[in-house]
Amino acid sequence: xxxxxAAAAPALKKxxxxxxxxxxxxxxxxxxxSDSLVPGxxxxxxGEILAVRGEHAQLRWRRPVPDVWLRLDQLEAYPSS
Length: 81
What we know:
- By secondary structure, the protein is α+β, with helices and mostly antiparallel strands.
- The protein is 23% helix and 30% strand.
- It has helices at residues 3-8, 22-25, 29-32, 40-44, and strands at residues 17-20, 47-53, 56-61, 68-71, 75-77.
- It has a 5-stranded antiparallel sheet with strand order 4-3-2-1-5.
- A hairpin with a 6-residue loop joins strand 3 (56-61) and strand 4.
- The protein is globular.
- The N and C termini lie far apart (27 Å).
- The model is unreliable at 1-9 (pLDDT under 50).
């Protein structure tokens, strides 16, 4: 990734609101280990980053579902309205 694109993309950190990038998730190890249908709430967002460890983030969705760990490159910042 170049410096300009890294600077343009907001850093994802604890407390950030995010959603899942369908293209980055499709075919990944995480998608093969999960249900074949991606839940709509993950694609629509927002989910909140609870913790960041290396290249992974722990997410909590605003639904009664378990927290999940996903790679940071599979996430994008939730657009503010």
